[in-house]
């Protein structure tokens, strides 16, 4: 089982003391990267939920710089202590509260600063599970936690509406949180104890704050707000008790009677600020925001220096113990390692591109992922690129620029890449982009075919087709296996087959083909065509015409057959590898998953499921479906589905009962595919594996690759949960509730009918046929066959008896 | 091609083939990412990189180091997902052995002056994590490669060892200068000695099962295969000829016939950068096997420009065996400055020519420094189509799709889940009734046939006859002349009729045939059938049948065109005649049938008369033998 695609930028990373390693929170693990090569060296596995903070124990002396200890906190309510050089867990402390942020100020204090107390205290921002009955529940809690004795101290510093991120002073004297347009800062007591009282300082502003940072040595705090201003307070918290300030006193810029000497404002960023950090010597201030430019301010003069063209919103800036190294985390799941005084990018650690939010109107047209058989996924990214990502290696292979875009958040989005499709062998890719009309003028759909050379996986543009379907959008693209042919369907009722006029006659060329041209056009009853699929051998093309499935001979462009109606417009079609069946997922209010028999032109069985993705295995008659759980099930607080909103069902086409099922999180916007497993055979004991691996990628682009027929590994983890048998039962429980709205199914009557039917004394075949829930009842054709079979089987038995 | 020589290049694939390390003799090691085709890291001047070694000052930077051998080792077999420890172990000309942690980018350990005179080879057994090195001093060192501790050191040879390899299970060490020696790795006893290589062996490999050694020496244009476990002194059991000396050998030998893809697969790279692939079912087959060559097409580029460096294949690895005669090979080829990586399927007898892209060495995108040739210019051009893109496209063949009834019912099924259920309930009862009907029919049919068989025994069921008589009463509608096509059914229904009815039907059929209200094909079999099955009756009723048969014969004559069926009919008539004969002479028939026949015997004379008529008919229809018979 392979998991990957995690976000590297969920929380800020941390450098090891020798700055050779970077600890990055990646989901429920902490991944350790080498800063020299940018490759992952190790990972800390032990948490069961998202790791929310990682704190490297700083070296107190130069000799101890090779010591590699760190603390991590997680949403699973535990704090762990690790030796990350080995790597192994040393200690695990259970807090029983989901921790959203943790700081340990005592660690940062130098021994000279104050003699260390025996106990180590952490300040945690946790979610209060015990909900209070107050009208405005304050679920966020800022608490003190004794790490040595592992119990929560008596003090709850603050209750907030939601758990806040705590920022700590590099010298360990202060820590603070943001609370709308206030900064709340606490002074860490010199002598820590369970009951030590912390001095609280509040600084006000008129705008909502977005980030804050403390100066490493001076009493200076900087905060950024959502409008792009940076406020710097100097000398905060100097005031002693009992000496009220006056307004006319000389503290310019300070609001009210805030405890600060002065406040100055810098304004360069056009939008909200995500990053504020002081350099380790305190001479510079780094700031960055949505516009993707890192600004270096000279603190004394306010002079600026820029690192532009990062191309993505900045999220975190982390300075390393090595003064020549720093890192920036970008929103597109990249961590850039910077060579510091020059702001040069040395290395980039990049993961899978994170999902982005397309304009609502185009969400319908966008389809998520394209897989090829070798375990490569192509995803659309926010900046009009397509990222080619290897699932098996958990690495980016390449990135294809579909359309140029400069990162400028203020710009309106004018182009949306709606579809991306890979051919099965991964050599051809097609993309569809829609240029949005400006004031209803100039909208344009553009279909592009890209080919890759087998030597390096760089895709190169082969063909551009402007307005492939006149004014209509392209609703789907599918490639024909084994042959350079593709089909595009459109809402204006036609589909087009494209072929590559292959340049085989041409010698000495790098690309196998040059251009794609339209080969055939077809339509069915003027119905909007919504989906298309080729059969595994490429001999049959299925095009979904709204609610019907039309089968075509792609070579002769001839309609071969039409399969009946589904309840809603079909969203996805998939031929089931080694069988005569085709599976269709239809959307609309009555979303449905239906399996059709192509030889008999009948529906085989169907479920009322909201299907997100369908994938079929080429080498067997199984297929997998990613379905969203109905609301009623999610709200029913059934233990199996806590926190899960989707389910993967693995079906064998011959029987409507799922073979296996797994409940998953963040299923919406997820994708599913079978990929070939041969690359894995090194790992798993060599055996004849005929099934592919199932790849599931969720809405957050985290993915998991697993063997759906051998799932003993799939017990404990976060994306996928539950072994199949248990889940299978609960699935039925879940669907029973889904089918509750249906008219009462007269079970007895049917049982009676069943007994009437059976002339022979009823035997097992009948029991199995008629038992089961209403929605699993086989159709008429199936019943006939089974009945006759039962008769045929009965005879010889009777003969033997006689 | 002579210009390219990959002898001095050190290459090593990472165990999972993610990376390729290349050292081209300048003391730098480049790590290429094979999936991206980009450089990942470069190691130069490694000693400076590690904090603990800071005090060791080496002079001259990376150019003073000359690496002599390189091997990429993984700690725990081939576990790909484990991030732990995969090291690049290097031997230098000055006798040092060092290990690099590639992903961390650090020197892991270094053993200085391990082999005075230079390290010549590093070998590693997959099963236990020990590394063996040997060098010019003839010693063999075993190193724990996780820690870099020297485990043991022993004399392998009195001369300089040029090549050494460990068996996969770690029990044997094969050393070679020019003579191959196989030692036990534990007690250093000599097990085998093979002689035959004239020069120093450059590359050597154990097969996976540890039964064979493949080796190739400097200047030799072949790969020799030696079998372990034979006599003390042996020559090579198999020699694979090449055009140039080999620099790298890989093999996959699986002699277990039960497992799929058993056989011997050998891969070698020659000095000139050509990859050879042999495969055979067994060692005898391998002797005669013709190598499949993988080479770079040289027509492009290098002859006209770039005389100094030619693209070549410089690393390859047998990845897996796809079928008994083909294998997936992962190769790195092109130029050292920008290698390309590709997984190719090589099958026996199909030489592979790879295209090298020489004009895109350093610039991954289409911006080449020199203007590409015209042909290439055309082909890199992007085709653009506007909205009139489907002008010469194939239009669909218009087709009327029948919506068959099943399809319609399915429509209903799909309409509404409620209806689905209702339909399901209905359909459940529907098939029931249909099925019961069907089965009844089947049973009744069987009964009928049984009755027919036992008809003479008087077990004739009245009931079953009733419907059949009804059938006969309106012959055309009820039997459905056209519809029943199978001969058996026809026979059954004809047999079920009373003789009178049958003759009535016969008459009607003849009339129909005459009037051409039914096609001959439909009618004639029936007539035929009736004549066969009710011959006795027809024979009995002379006057009526007389006329009838007469007219039939006329028609038969008239319809001479439908000869095929008529001939058949004639045959039947003939048979009837013969039967009449038989009936006259007393029964050779079964006793069961005799009784009714006896009942009819009184009419035998009539039969004779009938026969006469038959005879006349037949005479008319060109056969006179019947007359003679009569």
UniProtKB/TrEMBL annotation, chain A:
Looking up SMART domains in the UniProt record yields:
WD40 (SM00320)
Report domain WD repeat-containing protein 75 second beta-propeller positions. Answer: 379-630
Could you tell me which InterPro entries the record lists for this protein?
Beta-prop_WDR75_2nd, WD40/YVTN_repeat-like_dom_sf, WD40_repeat_dom_sf, WD40_rpt
Q: Where are the WD repeats?
A: 266-307
Quote the PROSITE patterns the UniProt record gives.
WD_REPEATS_2 (PS50082), WD_REPEATS_REGION (PS50294)
Q: Where is the protein found, in the record's own terms?
A: Nucleus, Nucleolus
From the Swiss-Prot or TrEMBL record, give the protein name. Answer: WD repeat-containing protein 75 second beta-propeller domain-containing protein
In its UniProt entry, the species of origin is given as: Trapa incisa
Automatic annotation (TrEMBL), chain B:
Record has Repeat as a keyword? yes
Question: From which domain of life does this come?
Answer: Eukaryota
SUPFAM superfamilies tied to this protein: WD40 repeat-like (SSF50978)
Cite a single Pfam family from the UniProt record: Utp12
**WD repeat placement:** 12-42, 194-236
In this chain, composition skew of type Acidic residues spans 617-630
Region (Disordered), start-end ranges: 584-630
- Species of origin reads Trapa incisa
Q: Which UniProt keywords apply?
A: Repeat, WD repeat
Where would I find the Small-subunit processome Utp12 domain in this sequence? 488-577
Q: Tell me the protein's name.
A: Small-subunit processome Utp12 domain-containing protein
InterPro entries documented for this protein: SSU_processome_Utp12 (IPR007148), WD40/YVTN_repeat-like_dom_sf (IPR015943), WD40_repeat_CS (IPR019775), WD40_repeat_dom_sf (IPR036322), WD40_rpt (IPR001680)
